[in-house]
Amino acid sequence: MIKPWDTFFKEKMIKIFSDKKTILDIGGGLRTVNSKGNRLDEKNAWLEEYIKKVDYKVLDKVANYHPDIVGDVQKLNLPDNSVDAIICIAVLEHVEEPQQAVREMFRVLRPGGYCYIYVPFLFYFHPMKDYYNDFYRFTYDGVKYMTNQFKEVEIQNVRGAFATVVNLLPIFSKRTGFFDWLDIFFGKISSRQTSGYSIFCVK
Fold first, then answer.
1. d(CA 189, CA 36)
2. What b/e readout covers 98-131, taking b as 16+ CB neighbours within 10 angstroms?
3. 4-160+193-202 has which fold?
4. What are the angstrom distances between the C-alpha of 74 and each of 14, 152, 158, 190?
5. 113 in Cβ contact with 85 (< 8 Å)
6. Predicted local confidence at residue 151, as pLDDT
7. For the chain, what is the mean pLDDT?
8. Do the Cβ atoms of 57 and 68 come closer than 8 Å?
9. Is the pLDDT confidence value at 170 over 80?
10. Which percentage of the chain shows pLDDT scores above 90?
11. What is the spatial distance between Cα 149 and Cα 102, in angstroms, rounded to a whole number?
């Protein structure tokens, strides 16, 4: 089945990499460059051709995984209005002050710049020892408030209600296909009881 959150991700990535030239991936969440992250995500391999055509840099708070820039999203060592686009996937739950992090991303984006964020809502606890803690979860209302300084904001839930519940169980984690169909059948595919939110913002 074609999942609306997968379509949203692909459409927004193509828009970012087609429209913009300097792209900062905070936390390396795209995981398409094996030398700049803690693991490779094969499902995003299609982005490699796009990445070759832009100035794509990964920022992480530790040097262990060889990012281009070592830095803290809560205090970016970058000038105002200096980046065309920012990608920040599954990072904000791991920082102490996520609203400050969003303010920093807004600050360094050029006017008209794009920001793609993913945050979890109903999602299992997932710190990584000696790398990051797991502090927060984000509701739909919280996402709207956190991004209210942007002039345009689109929000897409990730998973419907049934798939979200079973994704919390270790035996089903990330293997929710049958339950996605149940969400469609029962009209729960766009539920606010969701695993998380993908957000596309324009400054």
1. 34
2. beebbebbbbbbeeebbbbbbbbbbbeeeeeeee
3. Rossmann fold (3.40.50)
4. 27, 22, 25, 31
5. yes
6. 98
7. 93
8. yes
9. no
10. 77
11. 9
Which tokens is 90 given?
């599954």
Enter the tokens of residue 52.
């070759």
Q: Is 0.85 surpassed by the pTM of this model?
A: yes
Three-class DSSP labels, the chain = CCCHHHHHHHHHHHHHHHHCCEEEEECCCCCCCHHHCCCCCHHHHHHHHHHCCCEEEEEECCCCCCCCEECECCECCCCCCCEEEEEEECCHHHCCCHHHHHHHHHHHEEEEEEEEEEEECCCCCCCECCCECCCCCCCHHHHHHHCCCCCEEEEEEECCHHHHHHHCCCCCCCCCHHHHHHHHHCCCCCCCCCCEEEEEEEC
Cβ atoms 90, 134 nearer than 8 A? no
User: Mind listing the pLDDT tens digit for each residue in 79-133?
Assistant: 999 999 999 999 999 999 999 999 999 999 999 999 999 999 999 999 988 889 9
Beta carbons of 160 and 183 less than 8 angstroms apart: yes
